[in-house]
User: Fold this.
Amino acid sequence: MLNMMIGFFKDYFKYKESAKKQQRWMEKYCEQNNYAINPSWMMATNLKSNLCEMEETFGKRYCPCFEPSGEKELDKKMMCPCEFVEDEIKEYGTCHCALFGPADLSKEEWKASSQRLMDEYQVPKNLKDGVLDTRGMPLDPRRGMMIPDMMHQVKSTLNGYKGKALKVIVESEQEVKNLESIAKYRGYGISSEKVESHFEVALSL
Assistant:
């Protein structure tokens, strides 16, 4: 929990100014659709920071909960606000990320959806001796992508990580490309190799 809070405030100060731009379009979007932004300051701030990081890392405002898939049509649908908002509001009460919900959603309903999201992403990581195996997580039924995806597993691992290197095992070439973008943005060294049916990526921190 301490590492998570340290990571939260580092991102908050890093993206404090650019998050204002995110806030403006979010408010306009909510006004047009009779939605509201998550009333929890911490949840909304964390999601705005994630949006800023997605935009700076990958060049586009992808959904803060999912890394780019590499599939042109799916990635287009995952531009925030994504095309799954209405369906997910029907199922969860909010969008998947618990960022947007109906304007009349109760505090209890916001809290329940936020907790659902946190439960999805706070699963035990397959991390041992400096090797993080990101494979085998449950798939989101609408996107066909892991929850949590490789990107979120790596980011969570790096919060408080003391090692100088991290090896990441991924399943697809697109995940390697995403790690290359993350490494470039964060200033890490990176190398990768294909091993049988997966890829092993070495990050120098």
User: Anything to note?
Assistant: The radius of gyration is 17 Å. The first helix runs from residue 2 to 14. The mean pLDDT is 95.
